[in-house]
Amino acid sequence: MAKVLRSRSGQDREALNRELARLPRQMTTAITQCMRQRNMNRTQLARAMGVSPGRVSQILSGDGNLTLGTLAAVCVALDSRLEAKLVPNSSASTVTATADVPVPAPVSDQWQALAAG
């Protein structure tokens, strides 16, 4: 990724930095809203993920690197799925990607390892 960043203009780097700041906030907001809908607190989410409450706090702080593995473990614990939507900055059309993939339950050791990050 560093090579890509070096070849980008200053304006592109600024846009990338904005997205890198926005995406974690968007994800943690979605996770928190889902938790509220399910009347689930951080301790309960941690138990469902097989991680410590401290790890859940790290995830919800948005400061750490939210990997796909971590997001998948959160989805399993919340009995939800993640849908990604790319929305152009201009007023062009929206692209949505969803995947209906069966999710194993209960959370396996593999998911716990990924969530522990």
Number of domains: 1
Roughly how much helix do the residues carry, as a percent range? 55-70%
Instruction: Using the 3D structure, state the CATH architecture.
Output: Orthogonal Bundle
What is the overall silhouette?
Answer: elongated
Task: Please write out the topology.
Blueprint: H1 2-7, H2 10-37, H3 42-49, H4 53-61, H5 68-77, E1 84-86, E2 95-97, H6 109-116
Antiparallel strand pairs: 1-2
Structure description:
By secondary structure, the chain is mainly α. It has a single domain (2-116), classed as 434 Repressor (Amino-terminal Domain) (Orthogonal Bundle), CATH 1.10.260. It has six helices and two strands; from the N terminus they run αααααββα. The chain has helices at 2-7, 10-37, 42-49, 53-61, 68-77, 109-116, and strands spanning 84-86, 95-97. It has a two-stranded antiparallel sheet with strand order 1-2. A hairpin with an 8-residue loop joins strand 1 and strand 2. The longest helix is centred in the first third of the chain and has 28 residues, at 10-37. Residues 101-111 have low confidence and may be disordered.
Keywords:
single chain, 117 residues, mainly alpha, 434 Repressor (Amino-terminal Domain), two-stranded antiparallel ribbon, 5% strand
In short:
With 117 residues, the chain is mostly helical. It contains 6 helices and 2 strands.
